[in-house]
Amino acid sequence: MIQGLSVLVVDDNQYMRKIVRNLLINIGVRKVYEASDGIAGLDAIRIVTPDIAIIDWELPLLNGAEFVRIVRSPGVFPFADIPIIMLSAHGERWRVVEAVRIGVNEYLCKPVSAQALLDRLTSIVAKPRRIVQLGDYYGPEPRKLLTDPVTTPSIARAPNGTVLN
């Protein structure tokens, strides 16, 4: 299922785009597109309509958060439902929370491994979360927070220890 995906990588660092491209090719992705800034990334989504976008937090012209806010604007942006993976050198909790709050599907920290990319892509493809509108939020249905991990048979934990389902 990974082989049929087309993935857009938006990062201002050419070397990082090459690394991510090579990682994607090594895990079986055949179609990889690139953009070097937020505006070019928006244009690329409109032109090549990739299945998934991988974007950096720090981008020129339009940063990653602004990029996601624009993409997640149904009625304004034509492909508001595209799954988005934020790939950033910044792993601060507030950034991860903000990324989730604005509609990012997954968040990964640099340096990233091929396995981590494969896991996130597989999760998006095999267990897609439906897109929902909740007040001002438009994006993947939020994961449910579990309050009692002892009584819950299947537990997933975020990097910060929060229990997710």
List its traits.
single chain, 165 residues, 33% helix, Rossmann fold, alpha/beta, globular, disordered C terminus
Terminal CA distance reads: 23 Å
Q: In the CATH hierarchy, what is the architecture at level 2?
A: 3-Layer(aba) Sandwich
Number of β-strand runs? 9
Which whole number gives the mean pLDDT?
88
Estimate nothing, just give the exact number of structural domains: 1
Structural overview:
The protein is of the alpha/beta class. The chain has a single domain (6-164), classed as Rossmann fold, CATH 3.40.50. The protein has helices at residues 14-26, 38-48, 64-71, 93-102, 114-126, and strands spanning 6-10, 31-35, 52-55, 84-88, 106-109, 131-134, 137-140, 156-157, 163-164. It has a five-stranded parallel β-sheet with strand order 2-1-3-4-5, sandwiched between helices. The radius of gyration is 15 Å and the shape is globular. Residues 148-165 have low confidence and may be disordered.
Describe the structure in brief:
This protein has five helices and nine strands; from the N terminus they run βαβαβαβαβαββββ. It has 165 residues and is an alpha/beta fold.
Present the secondary structure layout.
Elements: E1 6-10, H1 14-26, E2 31-35, H2 38-48, E3 52-55, H3 64-71, E4 84-88, H4 93-102, E5 106-109, H5 114-126, E6 131-134, E7 137-140, E8 156-157, E9 163-164
Parallel strand pairs: 1-2, 1-3, 3-4, 4-5
Antiparallel strand pairs: 6-7, 8-9
Helix pairs in contact: 2-3
